[in-house]
Design a protein that fits this description.
342 residues; 18% strand; binds nicotinamide-adenine-dinucleotide; alpha/beta; seven-stranded parallel β-sheet; binds UDP-4-deoxy-4-formamido-beta-L-arabinopyranose
Amino acid sequence: MSKILVTGGTGYIGSHTVVELQNNGCEVIIVDNLSNSSMDVLEGIASITGKKPAFEKLDCCDRKALAEVFKKYPGIEAIIHFAAYKAVGESVEKPLMYYKNNLVSLLNILELMGEENARNLVFSSSCTVYGQPDVLPVTEDAPVKPANSPYGNTKQIAEEIIRDTIHADRRLKCIALRYFNPVGAHPSAAIGELPNGTPNNLIPFVTQTAIGIRECLRVFGDDYNTPDGSAIRDYIWVVDLAKAHVLAVERLLKNRNRQGVEFFNLGTGKGLSVLEILDAFEKATKVKVNRTIVARREGDVEKVWAEPAFANKELGWKAETSTEDMLKTAWEWEKALEAKRR
Ligand code: NAD
Ligand code: WQD
């Protein structure tokens, strides 16, 4: 049974990944400072898998505290590093907070990988590194474009740091996963996304509007060069995304002689516009979403979707869940949250 350290494991993608890891027989140790999640998530994970993962509340920027975890849980073979701040707008307001949190935590992880016998890293990167790609669908070898935000820049710099570190220390290996737009929740509705305050992302705003917390969804722009004028993204179900992490860990642990860092796009390969998402949500849930068209949001790209062929072939992974099914899980999760709020 592999022992896996999951940083940010009580967060949105982390919690779904812990479920998949435990369901595949891994022993999981979560470290999280709960800056954007709560201890209740551990109960949610236990209700799905029958097992509460080990949990240490700590800040990954605290190197000493992180080092203690390796002593307390000897034999950690791989680390999945989710812990980071992720709000694009906030990162523009507070760049240093983002650079510090996202990069110091990564530096600590990489240093400790060199010192401890945990040589394998799965890193949460993002399609944001591509900016507006020249060619669609975008492949992993597309050029990295200047970042649109300090947040995006932390992912670009993180990829560079990982590349340089692994080049210098051949014992270390990494798979960097470039997520497209993760959405939805576990089908049990026991875990899901917990947006802090007013959601920035589309799907939580849609579900909150549908349930009546928000009056109206603002569609940011209908004058893009797309068939219906709204912007296009590649929305991927969070559970499909989580499963890719299990395969990435397996790939690292199985192929002990393969060196270096590999980058994988995790997307469906299908681009959907904002208006298409709204239609799919209404069709899947039979609930109307009040909307209005407003100006484009600053910093948004027009269209981006993944070429996932490399992940399909090399990881043996494919996102198979339909748009309507993934949106249904987002809706079930919003209803579960509403039941708790009452
Ligand atoms: P999230 O905020 O739900 O989860 C991140 C978790 O990390 C939270 O539980 C938070 O408390 C914790 N954390 C943050 N800084 C920490 C620190 N210094 N020490 C310990 N814990 C810390 O976010 P998520 O959506 O699950 O994202 C996970 C990762 O995936 C992030 O690295 C994010 O940048 C990346 N990512 C997310 C998306 C997305 O749309 N959700 C897309 C691409 C990449
Ligand atoms: C999706 C589409 C909006 C809200 C962000 C980060 C990216 C990555 C994923 C981490 C866009 C439109 C949204 C609303 C809208 N995260 N929209 N009304 O911007 O593609 O990506 O999350 O790495 O780095 O930038 O995701 O969900 O915010 O927006 O019309 O109220 O929905 O304009 O076209 P985005 P999103």
